[in-house]
Write a structure and sequence with these properties.
four-stranded mixed β-sheet; nine-stranded mixed β-sheet; alpha/beta
Length: about 425
């Protein structure tokens, strides 16, 4: 087996006091590369009257308008398939994904395109580890994002995908799996299935993403089940943005992106500790992003970390400013629900509510009708077909849902 050097996954910018300089260089390069190769970035800078040659530091990015993730469906529909954001010919891509909400996401041909390897290395995954990957490989990029990072580290991947928990436990035991990657909720499910027999579960460490890791769940997995659990944070558009080290005291910012925390209504950069939207700039050769608003809320922590990395950390997931809500690792958008429910005669108003039963996310959709009660089982089937998420659909009396109610709300407690 070829030796995989740790230095590949731990850059000088993380361990020496070079962070500010490396970030300034990355910001300047991202703007120049994006302006030269991305029609969307060029249009946005020209409209704002910004000369890319004047961008020299991270601070200089603040005058550039934020592109919201929620704007991508309309942008891509007007200029398919990527809204002018692709910087290379489509023929140079490895894959195209169909993410929820009508968003197309590209994968370039670069090894570990989404930069997942550093997060996996920080979580203790090493060459030769056999790892069960339970994110979906179908249409959406999650499974391939983790797969590419695991292979870059030198791990052996068992591509489990979603569902079939009993079969996945059996395969994990048979193939010598010791690692897990996927949502924390599905890890709980697999542990529960495995402990129904005397053999117990095979997992020693896990990198979880795609859903909230509640403190009680982490405590149960680590203290009762003996699994070392680490978190990673990223998006299909921007790749890995932050990840935990062995101290598990926040998410270290990936050294290959520039992150800002901004006040959503003004775009103003927030002070340390102040909650705001996570905004990304990177110089990805195939899909560069400039001031891309993820819709996720977090805050910066610049205090020293015992692991030796000097990068700032995100304090964790603090909610959403965008319309989309992640449910069981999949984004659900109000427009998806509206498109499905509008096809059902008689449905006049709806509201989706995301909650938790203590382990799994639960999506409940309330629907009001003007006349005959709709077929809630058929609606639930149509919602699952559109969003890839199971939903409970309940018919409620007219007037139950307020006229100004948000179409999709997140009621999960994140602390």
């Amino acid at each position: 087996m070829a030796f995989v050097s740790e230095r590949v996954f731990w850059s000088a910018a993380e361990t020496h006091h070079e962070w500010d300089h490396s970030q300034d260089r990355l910001a300047a390069h991202a703007i120049r590369y994006g302006y030269a190769h991305s029609p969307e970035i060029r249009r946005r800078l020209d409209a704002a009257g910004i000369d890319p040659g004047t961008i020299e530091t991270v601070a200089d990015l603040s005058d550039i308008p934020v592109l919201a993730k929620d704007d991508l469906p309309d942008l891509q529909a007007s200029d398919p398939p990527f809204g002018g954001m692709l910087a290379v010919p489509v023929a140079e891509l490895r894959r195209i994904y169909a993410s929820p909400g009508g968003i197309s996401d590209p994968e370039g041909r670069e090894e570990d395109f989404w930069r997942m390897a550093p997060a996996l290395w920080a979580a203790g995954f090493r060459p030769g580890h056999v790892v069960l990957n339970t994110l979906s490989y179908h249409l959406t990029p999650g499974g391939h994002m983790l797969d590419a990072g695991l292979r870059a580290v030198g791990c052996v991947v068992v591509p489990g995908g979603v569902g079939e928990s009993v079969q996945q436990v059996a395969v994990a035991r048979r193939t010598g799996v010791t690692g897990y990657v996927g949502t924390p909720q599905f890890l709980e499910t697999l542990v529960e299935r495995a402990t129904e027999t005397d053999d117990g579960h095979p997992f020693e460490r896990a990198l979880v993403t795609g859903g909230p890791l509640f403190p009680a769940v982490r405590a149960r997995l680590e203290n009762e089940c003996g699994i070392e659990v680490f978190q990673a944070y990223g998006t299909a558009d921007a790749g890995i943005l932050g990840y935990e080290c062995e101290t598990r005291q926040g998410w270290h910012v990936s050294p290959r992106v520039v992150l800002d925390i901004v006040e959503p209504s003004t775009g103003r950069s927030c002070e340390e500790g102040e909650t705001g939207e996570v905004v990304v700039t990177n110089a990805n050769y195939a899909y560069p992003l400039v001031r891309f608003g993820t819709g996720d809320l977090s805050a910066f922590d610049h205090s020293p970390c015992a692991c030796g990395r000097t990068t700032p950390r995100l304090v964790g997931f603090l909610g959403r400013v965008g319309e989309g809500v992640k449910v069981r690792g999949m984004f659900v958008h109000p427009r998806q629900l509206g498109a499905v429910l509008s096809r059902e005669a008689g449905v006049e108003r709806f509201q989706g509510i995301v909650s938790t039963d203590g382990r799994d996310d639960v999506l409940t959709i309330l629907v009001e009708s003007a006349g005959e009660e709709p077929d809630t089982e058929e609606l639930a089937r149509a919602v699952r077909e559109s969003t890839k998420v199971r939903a409970i659909v309940e018919a409620v009396p007219a007037g139950t849902i307020a006229g100004d109610a948000r179409p999709l709300v997140d009621d999960r407690a994140l602390s």
